Amino acid sequence: MNKRQQCNKCLIPETYPGTTFNEQGICNHCLEFKKPELFGEEAFLQKVNSKNGTEYDCVLGISGGKDSCYVAYLAKAKFNLRVLAVCYDFPFLVDLARDNIKKVCNSLSLDLITIKTRNNLEYNLLRNHLLSLAGTGTTWGQCMFCHYGIDAVLYNVAIEKDIPFILSGITNHELWNPGSRTGFLLKRVKKLPINDLLGFIYHQSKAYLNTVDQRRQFGIPGNSCFNTYKRAVIPENGPETVHVFDYLLWDQNVIEKTLKEKTGWAKPKKATSWRYDCILEPLLDYTYKKEFGISTVGLYLSGLIRSGLIEREEALEIQRKSEDDEVLRDSVKYVFDFLKIPQKVQEKFFSPQRHREHRDNIFFHLSGDGDK
Questions:
Q1: Do the Cβ atoms of 314 and 253 come closer than 8 Å?
Q2: Counting runs of H as helices and runs of E as strands, what totals does the chain give?
Q3: What pLDDT was estimated at residue 349?
Q4: Which of 189, 194, 207, 224 is the most buried (most CB within 10 A)?
Q5: Backbone phi, then psi, for 166, in 5-degree steps?
C-alpha cells in the first residue's frame, strides 16, 4: 500500500477534502493562506468604548478553556472593563474546566453567572443523537446544542442586562470547512439497513425534540424553535459580538503562561490544551480522522504552523500523541459509557461494516436473493 501523502509544511493529508499539492509537496491550504492583519489595541478600545452599558461594558462566555479565560483576563486586568462572565454549564464540561472558571473569576473579581437548561436536556439530546448514528460509524452533529446554546445564552443575558458587547475568543486557527457535515452523514444514513434506518429515525426524532426544547428555553427573536439545524442568527439591533483576537495577538504560549501566573489557571495533562474543556471533543477527533485521515487537533495544529506559532516537528509529535488509535478509541468509549450507550451499540458504532455484512447475510439467507 502506498504511503499517504502529507503536506511538507503543515499536517494536511491528501485524504482531506479539496486538498491538492504542488511539485514541492505543499498543500493548497498553505499556498492560499494569508496571515490576517490585526486591527490593533487602539481599534479594540475604540470599539468597546463606543457604547455604554448600564452596569457592564461587555459579557463573555467562559468555559475554562485558555482562550475564553484569556479574554476575561484582558478585558478586566488589562483594559479595566466592567465584565460579566457567563458559563453555559452543560453535563459535558470537565471538572478541571469548572475549577479554572472559579480560579479565573475569583482572581479577577469577575461577576459570574452560571446557566443550565432544564430537563437534563443536553444529556438526553446527545444520548439519542449517538444512538441514532451507531450504524453509520460516525458522530457528526454532536456540537449542535452548543453552537446555538452559547449564542442564545449570551444574547439573552446581554439583552436582559443592557450590555452592548459580547466578547468572543474564537480564532481563525479553529475554523475550517471540509464540506457539508450533513451531506457526509446523509450518505451514510442512505446506506443503512432497514433496522438501523428505523433506529436512526426514532432516536433522531427524540434528539430533535430536545433541540426544540432548547430553543424554547433560550429563544432569540427571528429564530424558529423548529428549524433547529440552522445556526442562530443574532438580530442586528442586539448586542454586537467583538472577536477579540481579530484585534489583539493570539499566542498560546503567552496565553498559558499569563493565565497560570496571574490567575492560577491550570493546564490539562494532555498533548494540547485546545478544547480540553469538553469531554465530547474526542468524538470529533475520532470522526475526522476516520473520515479524512486527520483529527481536528491536526487541523488546528496545521493552522498554527501556517501562522508561524509552532514548528512542524513539534506539531507532528503532538499529532502523533493526539491521534493514537488506542487513545482515541478509549476517549470515545469514555463518552459512550458516560452517556450509558449499551455495549452492543458501541460495538456497532466501532465496526459498522461488520454489522452491515452480518445483517446482509441474514437477509440473503431469508430471502434467497442478494442485493439488486
A1: no
A2: 15, 5
A3: 85
A4: 207
A5: -110, 120
Pairing of strands 83-88, 240-243: unpaired
- DSSP structural state of residue 371: -
Using CA of residue 162, residue 58, residue 164, residue 243, what is the dihedral sign? negative
Beta-carbon contacts of residue 57 (< 8 Å; ≥ 6 apart): 48, 81, 82, 83, 163, 164, 165
What's 256's domain CATH number?
A: 3.40.50.620
User: If we measure between CA atoms, which residue out of 247, 266, 261 comes closest to residue 49?
Assistant: 247
Domain for residue 337, yes or no? no
Contact between residue 25 and residue 13 where contact means Cβ atoms under 8 Å apart: no
Which pTM was predicted? 0.91
Q: What is the spatial distance between Cα 28 and Cα 130, in angstroms, rounded to a whole number?
A: 34
Count of positions (residues) in the chain? 372
Q: Do 125 and 227 share a domain, yes or no?
A: yes
What SS3 class is residue 361? helix
Q: Number of folded domains in the chain?
A: 2
- The whole domain housing 207 covers 38-278
Q: What is the pLDDT of residues 248-264, one digit of tens each?
A: 999 999 999 999 999 99
The terminus-to-terminus CA distance of the chain in angstroms comes to 31
Among the candidates 278, 294, 318, a domain finishes at 278
